Amino acid sequence: MLVSISAYILVGIYVGRNIKTVEDYYVSGRNAPTLLISGTLFASMLSTNGFMGDTAYCYSGNITTMVLLNTLCAGGYVLGALFFGRYIRRARTNTMPTYFGRRFNSPRIRRFAGVTTIVSLTAYLLAVIQGSGILMETVTGLDRVTCLLITWACFTSFTLYSGSNGVIITDTMQFILFLAATIIGGPYLFEAAGGLGDLVTNLLNNPAAPADLLSYHGNTGGGSAFDIVLYAVTMGVIWMITVGVSPWQAGRNLMARNEHVIFRSGAVSALLTVIFLTYLYLMAICVIPLNPHMEQPERVIIWSAFEVMPTLVGVAVLAGILAAGLSSASAFLSVIGFSLSDVLTGVESRDEASQLRFARMAVLGVGLVALFLAYLDISSIRLISWFASTIIASSWGYVAFASVWSKRLTERGAYYAMVGGFVGYIGSKCLREFAGLPLNDLLDPFFIGLAVSVLMGIRGSKGQTRSKEEIAFHEMLHRIPASETRIADYKRDRAYGWLMVAGGVAVSALFLVYWAIPYNMAVGSDVGMFFATLTD
After folding, report:
1. Which of 67, 220, 200, 65 shows the shortest CA–CA distance to 521?
2. How far apart are the C-alpha atoms of 499 and 269, rounded to whole Å?
3. Which residues contact 404 (CB under 8 A, 6 or more apart)?
4. How far apart are CA 85 and CA 438, in angstroms?
5. What's CA 50's distance to the chain center, in Å?
6. pLDDT tens per residue across all 536 residues of the chain
7. DSSP letters of 55-89?
């Protein structure tokens, strides 16, 4: 793990030597290929929450809940690329708040978008720092504060010096590491649990398995099947919108070499979200027969690396989990720092050297604040992550897509919509948490915030006309650059689309053959009896 940390820092230092302009620092010179964009998209999305929080949820009986949630989330990479990401790249801005400010010719929208970015991603950054610190504490035996300092020093150093250029390169290194390590480590767990082909049958016959682990809805936790499925759909929609429009995901499109890179990276990220995460979750439930009733299920993969896998493979998996955390941390830190320097301080009027210097100071300042808050240990990893994602989804979701596709949304309407979504979410969240109001499922604070955002956008635009600057900018977004019109590029894009189709068919077939049919046969359902008759 320490060797991998050293490698990231060295690469960051090397890349940082080539940073000459603000565009290099903020958006990697707008020249990133498909591999780098795919790597940074998926690595920054997964983080320690994917390896620790989500796997704990699966181990506790909700793997099918997570598969449904991730399938909806994956759609955000495709929809976001097609209907939002390609257009914001044409704007050639350095940050997402700057895009909204220029689209509506509005400094106040730019500032408010910057505030929501800082608030939401600071919360997310805390979750990632804490998760990475827990991992390092488990492995090294060092105290919590020392582990937080080591983790912080790593991602802050290369982010501070090399900016987005270093972040996306180290993200991709980390992405390759945790992908390879997990794929290699999986078979050892599957074999220890009795084989992947017999996993469903073995878990059904295991009294230690959580209730409804293998059913379509998962562990209801004392509620109804409808409630838990609706929860999965709700959170899936939230994440679909989040990966489609959030600054730490959609903002990566600003760095892409061209629009075709955006399409292809979205397809790759969608496939990974469904296939790789399902593979990871299967690893988590394989631990149930090996170590049931873990007191800290967040450490299910960490325990596997220590107790089940060969030493070298386990080391690689642990380094991979740390890499997932560091990649997210560096992405969040860079976006927060860039938003602070580029939006809230108006440094765009300075020369290049001054802007670079101030941006690096902003990154360092944000990093120090995040370190202090992480030291306070204010909440759980999963809770902070879900809270952070919904702020941007509520505040930006409607405005982001409307900024591209609506000819009626005005500056005032967009501002009202952003503020309304933000306040609507925070207000309803507080009512649920502190006043005990039953705001769940379709009345989830996210949907309340989104509904308020849409209503405020419509109300704010009523009786208003768009300015000449707004109209001109909107028309520019819909002009396809000449460099993006090669037929051969679109044919290649389509191949990625067909790859998603093939992936969907393959995953569905595997679920049917190795999960749905054995499960129904084991529980004696009508469907199971039908297949049992065919087998006989």
Report:
1. 200
2. 12
3. 83, 84, 87, 477
4. 36
5. 9
6. 888 888 988 998 888 888 888 888 889 989 999 999 999 999 988 887 788 889 999 999 999 999 999 999 999 999 999 999 999 999 999 999 999 999 999 999 999 998 888 888 887 788 778 778 877 887 788 888 898 898 888 888 888 888 898 899 999 999 999 999 999 999 999 999 999 888 998 999 899 999 899 999 999 988 889 889 988 998 898 889 889 998 888 999 999 999 999 999 999 999 999 999 999 999 999 999 999 989 889 889 999 999 999 999 999 999 998 888 888 888 888 888 888 877 666 545 556 677 778 888 888 888 888 888 888 776 555 555 556 657 887 888 899 999 999 999 999 999 999 999 999 998 888 888 788 888 877 788 888 999 999 999 999 999 999 999 999 999 999 999 999 999 999 999 999 999 999 999 999 999 998 899 888 888 877 776 666 666 65
7. HHHIIIIIHHHHHHHHHHHHHHHHHHIIIIIHHHH
The SS3 call for residue 95 is coil
Q: Which residues make beta-bridge pairs with 256?
A: 32
Residue 32, SS3 per DSSP: strand
- Burial label, 290 (beta-carbon count in 10 A; 0-12, 13-18, 19+): middle
Helical H segments across 104-219, by residue range: 107-140, 144-192, 199-204
| Lookup: tokens for 332 | 């969040």
Amino acid at residue number 65: T
In 10 A of CB 485, how many CB atoms?
A: 9
What tokens appear for 75 in the block? Answer: 């759609």
Long-range CB contacts for residues 342-350, cutoff 8 Å, separation at least 24: 342/26, 342/94, 342/95, 342/97, 342/98, 342/114, 343/95, 343/97, 343/98, 343/101, 343/110, 343/111, 343/113, 343/114, 343/117, 344/111, 344/114, 344/115
CB 444 within 8 A of CB 399: no
**DSSP-based helix, strand, coil % in the chain, nearest 5:** 80, 0, 20
The answer to whether the predicted template modeling score (pTM) of the entire model surpasses 0.85 is yes
Task: Check: CB of residue 245 under 8 Å from CB of residue 56.
Answer: no
Report the distance separating Cα 448 and Cα 346, nearest Å: 33
Spatial distance between the Cα atoms of 28 and 157, rounded to a whole number of angstroms: 17
> Using CA atoms, how far apart are residues 467 and 517, in angstroms rounded to an integer?
60
Q: Is the dihedral of CA 221, 226, 231, 236 positive or negative?
A: positive
Nearest residue to 65 (alpha-carbon basis) of 216, 198, 207, 208? 216
**3-state SS string over 114-146?**
HHHHHHHHHHHHHHHHHHHHHHHHHHHCCCHHH
| Among candidate residues 300, 299, 305, the one with its CA nearest the CA of residue 319 | 305
CB atoms within 10 A of CB 433: 12
Q: Which one-letter DSSP state was computed for residue 256?
A: B
Q: What amino acid occupies position 470?
A: E
Q: CA-based Rg of the chain, rounded to a whole angstrom?
A: 23
